[in-house]
Amino acid sequence: MPRLGAALLLCLLVLSLPEPPAAESPLQLPAPQNVTIYSYNYQNLLRWAPVKVDNGSVLYTVQYSTIAYDWEEINCTNITKTECNFTHPEIKSFWTITLRVRAELGQVKSDWVETNKFFADQNTTIGPPVIVNVDSTPDSLFLNFSPNVKEDNLQYLVRYWEKSTNERHETEWTKNTRIGLLNLKQLTVYCFQIRAKLRLLNDNIGPFSKTDCHKTATSDATRAGFVAIIFVGATVTVVILAIVCFLFIQKFHQVIKYWFQPPFQIPLHIEEYLKDPEMPVLEELQNNCAEEDPWDSLSVVSNAEGSQALLNTNVQSDSRSIESEKT
Ligand SMILES: *[C@@H]1O[C@H](CO)[C@@H](O)[C@H](O)[C@H]1NC(C)=O
Ligand SMILES: *[C@@H]1O[C@H](CO)[C@@H](O)[C@H](O)[C@H]1NC(C)=O
Ligand SMILES: *[C@@H]1O[C@H](CO)[C@@H](O)[C@H](O)[C@H]1NC(C)=O
Ligand SMILES: *[C@@H]1O[C@H](CO)[C@@H](O)[C@H](O)[C@H]1NC(C)=O
Ligand SMILES: *[C@@H]1O[C@H](CO)[C@@H](O)[C@H](O)[C@H]1NC(C)=O
Ligand SMILES: *[C@@H]1O[C@H](CO)[C@@H](O)[C@H](O)[C@H]1NC(C)=O
Questions:
Q1: Residue 190 included in any domain
Q2: Does 118 contact ligand 6 (Cβ within 6 A)?
Q3: Domain residues for 99?
């Protein structure tokens, strides 16, 4: 029993002892994880997960090597960001490079982490070209686009389909930056996607662009047809209207006559005359006629006579004709 007691006491003693102090500065820093190269149209970025430490800010250093050279620095030394932009015009064609990254905290350094071999032509993602404009004709769409990579060996392909169906068609690969989608239906919406590839031993084929849709134009024949239909329609309408008017006039002849020509009203003086035949209405009428005699205009003609010869002859002939009318 006392032995057991002693053991228990020892146990308690051990438990109550202060824990051994944690290492002030670890001899080894964990290496960066998930070291990945992202490359799009030869824009190259190396990224990694940050190395977490309780105290202090970790710095990173990236180096590269080609087959021919030793490890070298690339402006990503003692950086705090967890990415390194290693875009460089020389890191292209025929270059195979390897990158490596390590973390540093004061004097403590992590192990290097190496990437896979990076062969830009093969490993970069060739982005789809940008559609500049689309020319539409009744039976085709012509896509004009511009590449966003400077490369001689690019080729393009378009996948297209009638929007209302899902039957996909693909053009041939071509170097042209204008592709025609032919034998389409007029006035129909077509959708398309475009992709580029880099011609190599193993082609580097880029992803398709976002879907874009366009409508084909109307054909001249159809337009002429529309015009003809509109013309015929207008003509028929006019004819029908004319017939309806005619029938209407026939049927409501009397009414219409009444509207346009109110019943004839005998002038007051004639009416009076009819009532009282002795009133000198006839004379009055004759006098009125005399007053309205067109001789007035003749006097104007004689005034003009003196001034303009050319006018004279005209006016004279006028006056003659007036005279002849008068006789
Ligand atoms: C590394 O990537 C994997 C998968 O994407 C993820 O589960 C993991 O958390 C990442 N590691 C770090 C340290 O971020
Ligand atoms: C790290 O911790 C020490 C003491 O534990 C402190 O003196 C120092 O300021 C800390 N450094 C940072 C960068 O926080
Ligand atoms: C590093 O950066 C300096 C200045 O920002 C620049 O002149 C130099 O060309 C760069 N070196 C590399 C290898 O990118
Ligand atoms: C990076 O940091 C180390 C020590 O932390 C230093 O010796 C070295 O000169 C630094 N390099 C640059 C390019 O700042
Ligand atoms: C990387 O650098 C290139 C050339 O210096 C620049 O054009 C590009 O915008 C940079 N990319 C990022 C993500 O910073
Ligand atoms: C580049 O592509 C090759 C072949 O597809 C592949 O084996 C390699 O891992 C890629 N490199 C990188 C850094 O992803």
A1: yes
A2: yes
A3: 33-123
